[in-house]
Amino acid sequence: MSRDLPHWQLKELYPSLDSPELKADLLKIKNNVAALKEYEFPPCPKSVEELASDLSKMIKLEEELIDPVEAIGVYCHSIITTDSYNGEAVRIDSSLDGAKIALSLLQVRYLKWLASIPQKLWDDFWSSSASEELKDFRFALQEERYNAAHLLSEKEEELAAKLEQCGTQAWAKMQGLITSRATADFTVDGETKRMPLTAIRAYQTNSDPEVRLRAQKTEEAAWKTIEDQIAACLNGVKGSANTMAKARGYSSALEQSLRISRLDDETFSALWDAMQRSFPLFRRYFKSKAKKLGLPKLRWCDLDAPVGSSTKRYSFEDCQSFLLRHFANFTPEMHDLAKRAFDNNWIDAEPRDGKRGGAFCMPVRKLEESRVMANYGYNFDSVNCLAHELGHAFHNYCMRGLPAKQRKCPMTLAETASIMNEVVVSSSAIKEAESKEEELYILENMLTSASGVIVDIASRFLFEKEVMKRREENELTAKELCAIMEEAQNATFGDALDENCRGPYMWTWKPHYYFSGFNFYNYPYAFGQLFALALYSLYKKEGQTFIPKYMGFLRSAGQDSPRGLAARFGYNITKKEFWDNSLSVIEGWINRYEEL
Ligand SMILES: [Zn+2]
Prior knowledge:
By secondary structure, the chain is mainly alpha-helical. It has helices spanning about 20-40, 50-80, 85-95, 95-115, 120-125, 140-150, 155-165, 170-180, 195-200, 210-245, 255-260, 265-290, 315-330, 330-345, 380-400, 410-415, 415-430, 435-470, 480-495, 505-510, 525-540, 545-555, 560-570, 575-595, and strands spanning about 185-190, 190-195, 345-350, 360-365, 370-375. Among the domains are: about 20-150, Butyryl-CoA Dehydrogenase, subunit A, domain 3, CATH 1.20.140; about 170-305 and about 455-525, no CATH class. The chain has a three-stranded mixed beta sheet with strand order 3-5-4, with helices on both faces. The protein has a two-stranded antiparallel sheet with strand order 1-2. Helix 12 runs parallel beside helix 24 (about 575-595), helix 13 packs antiparallel against helix 14 and helix 15 (about 380-400) crosses helix 22 (about 545-555). It is globular and about 75 Å long. The model has no long low-confidence stretch (mean pLDDT about 95). It binds zinc ion.
């Protein structure tokens, strides 16, 4: 074989799409679904012993039902994402839809059953020895019971699910259609072409400041012609979100979102405080970046402009030895896991026809392994991207042996190990940089990403909060939405951004504002970044004694709130001091950036 970039394989899961093993699992799923229709939940338990027995049975049933659906889903996904022409994989994967619907209906009935248990019995159970064997499920079960209390009646839930498809989801679909099909004329190298706005936006990473500004202004002029249609979509989505949050008994859509993220108000306010304290630091970075670009002030279109350069080429072997070397310094377990991934074809690295773009890591729970998909590009960004995805694989490895119910991580914690790996690898790469240009290039990448995830995300949060509030009174016009966006950017980027060149139309195309199941899809990114940076700083201070705590933390990430987990390891994330750790890492980067 001539190719030097590996393809992944999952033969240990199923030998092939038409193997007897896969057919047997499909049959098992079919029988399970048929049996579910008849399934009767036990009557409300009368004693703690009865409750223990009922809960154990249901946890076991859940595992049995999920296992084959998950295994076939993962197997098909591994094929579809790397070979979209494989119709058989698509067909088998979509044949699981019926089973998934049956499982979600069963879940609603299960939650209703859980909510029907009297509070006194529930409390007695957890303080009695009957709960001993289920104590590791306590958090998951408590959370399910909490969610159950916010369910509507079975009939209303069914109606809401149906209306969501032709309400919120339809608005989101419309936004997706309008924005993905929007085009404008753009001139490159003297030639004018009709281009999708996404392609024009890519010119904001161009090294020529005139091209960047023209790209931004062309995009904005195009948004202006369709702003009312997109504003109608946003009004539809946010109006429904307010209605549903209230109907479910939350004080606001924000409260609902925070509970899904497992953040209490005190933790959230400590996070928000840390974000605000980081703004002056990032403004120093933006100002220094403007200077490096030869501009009086940074404009919106300059945020992703390139600074520094790296010509170093990393072959896949270079990437492997670079990562293994730096992981070994971090923790031997991370090194060993990455080595297994490289040695056993867990990674699909070659970009090719029919393969999806981007990168992701997927757990293969049945094998207690992971698979990583990437599109390797022989540069430092690709190395960093693999470090990130292998961080997810490490997190999966730390959770090995746990039942599915104890692995459910909120988005706030899901990126801890991946960002940690990125910081470990980037910090090492900076030390080994062969020129100032290269060091600047790596630092610039780290700061562009961190400022995006903290400062821009803060502006998105402020925007969404204001929109949700005002949407309770009336619909908002496109002009109002642009004004709210500019105000939010002013409150976060402040005087580091040219006041005549902000990004008023960011609400039109960012899909996060239009997600139906999750409002405020923004602060979890900031939490993930700042939390991982704080852990990195603690690792730097505590050295190897930090590692067992870190691995224990990752292992139990599905078994408590971020606050509760951190407390288990002696950290208080409601306190300013904890988040100061992250700010000091950022400050170190910016100090060096200014020097270069
Ligand atoms: Zn990730």
